[in-house]
Write a structure and sequence with these properties.
This protein is mostly loops. The chain is about 0% helix and about 0% strand. The chain has no helix or strand. The chain is elongated, with a radius of gyration of 22 Å.
Amino acid sequence: MNQPHVHGPNCQHDHDHHGHVHGPNCNHGAQTPVRNALKDVGRNDPCPCGSNKKFKKCHGG
């Protein structure tokens, strides 16, 4: 029978990083968190897109 290979801590295969799970031995640099630029925009504030409309009438819909 051909069982699917389960990758463990001693796996020596080359892996593409599609679906890569970052762990303590991962050699990737730390990623900066993604911030939601629209989080602090009030509904009646000007829309940050520059349309000169209120946020609620533009991208806050």
